[in-house]
Structure formats: C-alpha cells, structure tokens
TrEMBL record:
Subunit structure: Heteropentamer, formed by a combination of alpha (GABRA1-6), beta (GABRB1-3), gamma (GABRG1-3), delta (GABRD), epsilon (GABRE), rho (GABRR1-3), pi (GABRP) and theta (GABRQ) chains, each subunit exhibiting distinct physiological and pharmacological properties.
Signal peptide: 1-19
Sequence intervals crossing the membrane: 238-260, 272-292, 304-323, 426-445
Classification lineage: Eukaryota, Metazoa, Chordata, Craniata, Vertebrata
Protein name as catalogued: Gamma-aminobutyric acid receptor subunit pi
The species this protein was found in: Triplophysa tibetana
Record-linked Gene3D superfamilies: Neurotransmitter-gated ion-channel ligand-binding domain, Neurotransmitter-gated ion-channel transmembrane domain
One Gene Ontology CC term in the entry: chloride channel complex
Superkingdom in the source lineage: Eukaryota
The family this protein is said to belong to: Belongs to the ligand-gated ion channel (TC 1.A.9) family. Gamma-aminobutyric acid receptor (TC 1.A.9.5) subfamily. GABRP sub-subfamily.
Classification via PANTHER family: NEUROTRANSMITTER GATED ION CHANNEL
Region described as Disordered: 357-395
Domain Neurotransmitter-gated ion-channel ligand-binding span(s) in chain numbering: 37-237
Length: 446
C-alpha cells in the first residue's frame, strides 16, 4: 500500500514540477509539495462516488472493437475483444494547471471507478500481459479517463430458421452493477460514432451489416439501472454455402434426371443412377447437419432445400419403378389382346357380332366382302375406351369374361408407358425450377 502511495505522489510531484518549473527531477522538494498532495488525498474517499449527495455522476463510454473471434451457432454467443473507455468528472481530483497525468494502472485501486459490467457475458477476463491492461488518466479539471481491454464471450440469441440466408442481431450491453440511475448515468460519448472498429472487422462467415448505439435503462427488482447498448447486425456470407451445399445438391437432382433419357429396358443403369443419387443426397444432408446444432429442432432454410432435392431425386427413382411396372403390365395386356384377337379371328367373329349389337345386324347380313372391315371395326371398339359399358358387355364381354377383367385393368394403367419418361423429362425440370423460384423468393425477400 505504501508503494502505491509513493507512486501516486511521484506522479503528482512530476505534474507540479512540470507545471511550475519544468523538468527538474533533481530538485524535488518534498516539504514543499507534500502538503499539496496530502491536501488532495486527504478528503478523497475512494468508496464514495463523485458528486456524492449532489447528483448523479455522468459516465461517458466509448468502445473500440479489436476483434470478434468466434461466432458460435451451437452456443449462441460470440467472443469479442474490446477496449472500453469510460470517462467521468471527479471534482475532488481537480488540480491547478491545464495538463493531464497518466497514472500507473495499479493506482486504480486508489480511486473511485464505476462498477460497469456486461450483463450478457458468459465468460470474460481482463488481459494481464505484461501488466493489467488498464489506463488511467487524470485531467487538471478533474476528468478521469479509465480504459480497459476486455475479452468477453457474450450471449446472442440467434434465429436460425433462415440459415444460411440469415441475419443475426447481436448486442453488447453495458450496465452499472450497483449504482442505480439516481447515482450514475451512462451516455455514449459520441453517439453512433462511439464505437469504432466494427466497420473494418473481418469475420470468417459474416460481415457486419450495420450498427448503432442506444441508451436505455435496465429494470430489476432492486430498481432502475443505467444501460448502454450497442446493436450490430451480422449478415452471413451465403456464397460458401452455395458452393458447398446448394450447387452439389442441385447437380445431383439434375443427375437423377439423366435416367429419363435412358431406355427403360436397361434396368441396371437406371436403378443405379436412382439409388446412387439417393445415397449421395443422404450423405450431403448428413454433412450439412453436422456443422450445426441438431439438438434444436427448428427447420432451417438449408434443410428445406435439401429436403426438396431429396424429394425430387427420390421421385425420379419412383418414376422409373412406376414406368417399368406399367410397361410390363402393358406388355402383358397387349399379349392377351393379341391372343384374344387370334382366337376371335379363328372363330370367324360372326356369332360374336350377331349377339352383340342388334343395330349392326343389318350390316352383318351383307355379303361376306365386308367381313374384313367389320373385324377391324370390332377390334377398334374393343381396344378404345369410348364405348359405353353396356355395349362393351354385349360386344366383347359375352365371349370372354377374362378379357373384361383385363380391360378394366388396362383402364387403370397408362395408355402408353413410354410416354411417362417423355412427360417426366419436361415435368421434373419444370417443377424443380418452379420450386426453386418460390424457395429463393421466400428466403431472400421475406
Ligand atoms: C524546500 O523548499 C522550502 C521553501 O521553498 C525551503 O525552505 C526548504 O529549505 C527546501 N528544502 C529542501 C530540502 O530543499
Ligand atoms: C496551459 O496553460 C498555459 C498557461 O497557463 C498556456 O500557456 C498553455 O497554452 C496551456 N496549454 C493548453 C494545452 O491549453
Ligand atoms: C477537462 O479537460 C479535458 C482535457 O482538456 C477536456 O477534454 C474536458 O472536456 C474537460 N472537462 C470539463 C468538464 O471541462
Ligand atoms: C444512430 O443510428 C441509428 C440507426 O441508424 C439512428 O436511428 C439514430 O438516429 C442514430 N443516432 C444518432 C445520434 O445519430
């Protein structure tokens, strides 16, 4: 303690010799100056704030953001190193002259200093290499400047529903721990310009979009406390995600469409493309998920996109299964029809027509030259779906019930299974494009 007093005195000695005589280190006269120092320090009680019983002490703050090291989505916080500067006027420290004196950081323990704290900080520390990083400077008019270098991990609530097209609003709050607004008032020394260094900051995944400062009050059960808030908005650089996740998944979807241009008969080729793309997509989805907390269950924009891509890829695989099944069924139907036609031709078709349509009895009675034409008519009737059910029953059903059941099945299936692929070639890209337009419009504009 004695050492501190000695140091303090030394500083003041320096000051006064400076103001009155200049630098005459060798001619210090303790008996001359000691009473002045004693006078200054005699009334000084570091446990009492300035303006005690007079009014609140006004504390001006300014910040220099040296770095923002880690912005963590998993912990929802960021780590920043800041220079915090506080200035206030302590009338007890007024001394003659117009000079200022910078004191040793350790002399802070002799003076009253504000009890500012960062309410949202999880961990923070004052750097102490090689000495505690504090600065204290006293001006002759009693103004005290007190600067600190702090590294703090500060909570920032993030809304990740639009990840990675998100914009995070974080704050840095400064409050007084024990003095309420009747004792202490905070203000930013230069308004929005009080914060420096944010504009030139280089961050790995983000860029600082904007920042501003506000003055407010913290309301607690014990009263109202002064509070200063620095708001800053971080915009994530989406390019990295576009290259790492969006482009590969889009290309995978396009790759799955290749299957539509491959012949339906080459089962291994098309199955291979389908299954490989589905598996690759699954891997991509897993990879995109590991970089973020999977504990919180909200759906992020990137999950939505990967889900869309997965659906399309899976759809392409199902399309082949469907097309292949229809082709096989169509072929059996064609076979059955061909068989029936042969049977019908063998049985000469005459009895058939007599029982079937009474209207057509007249053409039936005509000479045998037209039999050929009628048989073709009949086949057309049996193949198309145009005839009414009762006519069908009469026309085709009476001869074989088996054919009818086949007929009913063929109504359910697609007319020409090879068209499924040609439709898919148009439908899949169009649908994917449309979904993309809606996706990007929604996430970029709203
Ligand atoms: C200090 O200054 C006072 C008055 O100016 C003088 O009387 C005294 O002798 C000085 N002491 C020394 C040690 O120089
Ligand atoms: C300090 O005061 C002296 C005289 O009292 C004057 O000459 C000098 O210009 C002042 N310096 C500043 C920085 O105001
Ligand atoms: C005290 O002096 C400093 C430096 O000369 C100046 O910046 C500050 O405004 C002064 N404060 C008051 C209350 O006059
Ligand atoms: C600080 O910036 C905010 C947002 O840009 C603005 O609303 C406010 O008026 C500014 N304050 C000052 C003192 O310039």
């Amino acid at each position: 303690m004695m050492l501190f007093y000695l140091l303090f005195w030394t500083c003041f000695l320096l000051l006064f010799t400076n103001g009155e005589k200049g630098f005459h280190y060798g001619e210090w006269n303790d008996s001359q100056l000691q009473p002045t120092i004693q006078k200054l320090m005699k009334g000084y009680n570091r446990y009492l704030r300035p303006n005690f019983n007079v009014g609140p002490v006004e504390i001006g703050m300014s910040l220099d953001i040296a770095s923002i090291d880690a912005i963590s989505e998993i912990n929802m916080d960021y780590t920043a190193t800041i220079f915090l500067r506080q200035r206030w006027r302590d009338s007890r420290l007024v001394f003659p002259g117009n000079e200022s004196v910078s004191l040793d950081g350790r002399l802070v323990s002799l003076l009253w200093v504000p009890d500012t704290f960062i309410p949202d900080s999880k961990r923070s520390f004052l750097h102490d290499v090689t000495v505690e990083n504090r600065l204290i400077r006293i001006f002759s008019n009693g103004t005290v400047l007190y600067a600190l270098r702090i590294t703090a991990t500060i909570a920032c609530n993030m809304d990740l529903t639009k990840y990675p097209m998100d914009r995070q609003e974080c704050t840095l709050q400064l409050e007084s721990w024990g003095y309420n607004i009747q004792d202490v008032q905070f203000y930013w020394t230069r308004g929005n310009d009080s914060v420096k260094g944010l504009g030139t900051l280089r961050l790995a995944q983000y860029s600082v979009e904007s920042y501003h400062t506000t003055v407010s009050q913290a309301v607690y059960e014990t009263g109202l406390y002064p509070k200063l808030v620095l708001h800053f908005a971080l915009r994530r650089n989406v390019l990295f995600f576009i290259l790492e996740t969006y482009v590969p998944s889009t290309l995978l979807v396009v790759l799955s469409w290749v299957s539509f241009w491959i012949s339906q008969s080459s089962v291994p080729a098309r199955t291979c493309i389908g299954v490989t793309t589905v598996l690759t997509m699954t891997t991509l989805m897993m990879g995109a998920r590991t970089s973020l907390p999977n504990a919180n269950c909200f759906i992020k924009a990137i999950d939505v996109y990967l889900g869309i891509c997965f659906t399309f890829i899976f759809g392409a695989l199902l399309e082949y299964a469907c097309a292949h099944f229809c082709t096989m069924q169509h072929q059996t139907i064609i076979d059955v029809q061909r068989e029936l036609l042969r049977e019908f031709e063998e049985s000469n078709g005459t009895s058939y027509l007599v029982t079937s349509t009474p209207k057509k009895i007249k053409p039936q009675t005509q000479p045998k030259d037209t039999t050929e034409q009628e048989t073709t008519d009949q086949t057309v009737m049996c193949e198309g779906d145009e005839p009414e059910p009762e006519r069908k029953e009469k026309g085709c059903g009476l001869s074989s019930v088996k054919q009818m059941s086949r007929k009913a099945a063929s109504v359910m299936t697609v007319e020409n299974p090879h068209n499924i692929d040609s439709h898919a070639r148009i439908l899949f890209p169009m649908a994917f494009l449309l979904v993309n337009v809606f996706y990007w419009l929604y996430y970029l504009l709203f």
